[in-house]
Amino acid sequence: MARFFPTLKIKLRQAGMLDKPEDFIKRTFISSLYMSAGLILFMFLLLSKFSNIGLMFFLGVPVIFIGMFFYMIKLPDLKVAREEKEVAKEIVFAGRFIIIELESGVPLYNAMINIAKSYPIVGKYFREITNKIDLGTSMEDALNEATDLVPSNDLRRILWQIINSIRTGTNVGKSLYSVMDQVAKDQLTEVNKYGKKLNPLAMFYMIMAVIMPSLGVTMLIILSSFIKFELNLTILMVISLLLAFVQFMFISIVKLSRPPIEF
Description:
The protein is an all-alpha fold.
């Protein structure tokens, strides 16, 4: 089955997961089987009164299992995306730090050690590079290996620029200027996009979570007094749960839309 996921090996390495693709798929398969069994048992207890329960399970069991499997197989992608967001918070500051270090006359190796000490997220990737250099790997080879492991495209661009400068013999600090300038502009663009997204999100929140619930419940109370409709506590609790769900979805959308940048 690992042959159907050719990029799984590199994603596992980028996510910091030491499993082999075959072992990860095996573990995912078993976990999906257990979770599907638990969900199916819960659905059986919930829907046992229906007469066509057998047909439901015949059609639903493979669908639930396949859905669980493909959901859990995306775990490395989720970890890579989360790590990329963490790197984005430090990448501009770390890039400028290494430029200042190099312009101050600090050797590239020492500059990478200083980054590893100063920045916990970005620094761990430079620490791996320096550890490989200490074990006898050349700096160019260590940087090349790191480009396959880092989850951030911005950090990968910085490493590529360092590699190109080492190969051509040019000044690393000056070469990084253009890369860091482009990274900063990209982050500024993300901030501007986020600002534009907030306006429709705020309008959606005002309509779905403020105006419609208040007017809707008021109209429902008025109509219940004219028609034979009992507005009991159960209905009000269901409405409250729906409103809580809308609030939760709105907060989640805002958090997911926010760019991973320290303003």
